[in-house]
Amino acid sequence: MNYFYFPLEEWTNRFVNNWLLPVLGGFFGIISDYISAFLGGIEAFLIWTPPEIIALVFVLIAWRTVGKGMALFTIIGLLFIGSVDLWEDAMRTLAIVSVATFFSIIVGVPLGIWSGKSEMVGRILRPILDFMQTLPSFVYLIPTILLFGIGGVSAVIATFVFAAPPAVRLTHLGIKQVPEDVIEAARAFGSTSWQMLAKVQFPLALPTIMAGVNQTILLALSMAVIASMIGAPGLGSVVLTGISRVNVGMGLVGGLGIVVLAIILDRITEALGKPRES
Amino acid sequence: MSKILVKEVSKIFGDNPQEALKRLEKGESKNQILEDTGMTVGVNRASFDVNEGEIFVIMGLSGSGKSTLIRLINRLIEPTSGEILIDGQNIVKMNTNELIEIRRKKLGMVFQKFALLPHRTILDNVEYGLEIQGVPKEERAKKALETLATVGLKGYEDQRPNQLSGGMQQRVGLARALANDTDILLMDEAFSALDPLIRKDMQDELLTLQESLKKTILFITHDLDEALKLGDRIAIMKDGRIVQIGTPEEILTTPENDYVSTFVQDVDRSKVLIASQVMKKPDIVAIWKEGASRAIRRMDEKGISSIFVVDKQHKLKGLLTIDAAIEALKEGGWVEEILVQDFPVTSPDTPLHELIGIAIDTKYPIAVVEGEKLVGIIVRVSILSGLALGK
To answer: Mutate which of B117, B158, B162, B186 to disrupt the A interface (most A C-beta within 10 Å)?
Structure first.
């Protein structure tokens, strides 16, 4: 089938080496510094805070939003993480997941709203999101390392690429699902487009948006092991070490830690998204 | 000056509305344009005016363009051509801010499917219009509570829309429109989604409210009975065109073309309805055995001056007037001779038009009797309302 040769590989490399790195390298360096400071601050805070207090906060949130059963699971789950000596690793993972989720939301939700309101934006975004979700993550790990270096920042960026799409998609869906007749009524009473968004569309889309946030968090956690390959600390790197040393027990312990975190975060955000019964 | 003046307004849905407009002017039909160009004519050069304080009904079957037409008035749908003057101001020419302002201050709207905000309480729904105008919370809550009381929903403030029945939800919809104090109410099939009894109640209530509110109401319906009942004037629409405008009497007596007359044909209900459809259940009766004082008390409770008397088996014995009953109580003469017997009697399947003459002549209600048993009572009002409402 090779009627002609398509030098995509050479072009890409030339673009990266001759233009991207020399011209934009400094710019990415600055971004990297900011994210690094942000991530570092959160990580330091989570590790500095006594585990008992963090556990207490989680248990209280689980109890208030989900119920007693979930509060009990949270206690047991966090005791487990502590007792296998992975508390600090869990907090590092939590920091990366939180920062990646934060970026996913502040970028994803507005993009989702925009694409929900404009057909054209929706049409442009869709293939980009498909690309972000299906492109094997190792492919973008390489340029990410080139631009942001090894460590937590690259992990945050890679996790963002993988985890942001559901935030965009479900926000888009939520906005689209707001019944046409309600929008029409709000218009008929003289709502500005901002009032329409803030008082009608966003509140009605919120449960769906929260489902997107929930998915974002779970996808971010599922990236923990891959992220550890580019030097991200945390539970993922425990699993990775387990794999490389053929230490089955170590891999299992780290993996279970990720599962525990995932279940706690999933149930809490799921409950937050449900409209409260009065 | 007319409150709403609509001049030659058209709405074309499609890629090249100007071409469709030209074809309309040449006299091509909606179907032909659809076939040739794929464009849909929503409204075809409609003109009418609505006077202040009037209920103007636009009636048409589904697809006639009536819902499009009402949305052109507040520009929920942009007109393709024509002018719409609200208090003399052309809404078609307004920019976004002016449009928002006139929607807030002058044009209230009630929707067929209620279109309440499901995430807000009833009170917050009614407040919505004032809230977006920046009216302070206390003031708008006060106004919303008053309006809710007007539509009979006091005490429901904190419920959510989905906790209310359809009829109540539409009351909220009405209250939401009234809370803004607009002169004009646009009502798009406002009662069509309600079941017949509730619908009739809402119609009656709208008429009662209108006596004090004196709004200018543009009411859309597909139901001729509703149009006749509510409308001061009625416009009949077909295929996007207004085919006749007139008072209910004019529409009934001088239909302008075949289309209107086929509608109106069905209205002569006196030939269709029978006694059992308009009679009241005989629950206001006196039982002979229970005596005079009991019968008087029944009449007093119901505010009536005569009552049918039956025996335990519900067999009709006669009609007791209040005078005869009081006399019997004083004199102790509780005998069957005091009962009036010359009231009209009919069977349940008598056509209504045969009863009209009887109802005019008699001073007593008509007893509907089946096998000697009293099964219903017809008073003059039931015949008239039967004729007007079909029930």
So the answer is: B117
